[in-house]
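Quick start: read one record
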Amino acid sequence: MTVEECEQLMQEHGVKPTANRIMVLQALGNEPMPITLLELESTMQTVDKSVLFRTLTLFQEHHMLHVIEDGAGRMRYELCRSHDHDHDDDLHVHFYCNACRRTFCFNALPLPGVALPAGFEMSSANYVVKGVCAQCRHRHKGELS
């Protein structure tokens, strides 16, 4: 992501652009898969951990970030490409590979609908399918039954 794209996305979501926020947004935008806080910290060693955490929290509050539990008890973060600052219209299915422990985004697969009882209102959803990814299945053919 360019600086201009970061500034545009932040403006659409009502977040004031700062140098640190742009760096965090660029790092998230460059990740092909959801990333843990520890993984993000290791790629952004020049940003203070407390600043990083506050920035992630701010992005989540402004629906710029998905926070998902990856199926193995770790929280992962990914950039939300939604352009609505009031709600997240970019929810999708995730897949956790039991073999390589990577979490994949299936952006083209929307979350299945859930009919909640009267009076309940959904604010977010976490849908993780667990199994073995195609790469691991091919690599370990016959071992993963």
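The chain has a mean pLDDT of 84.
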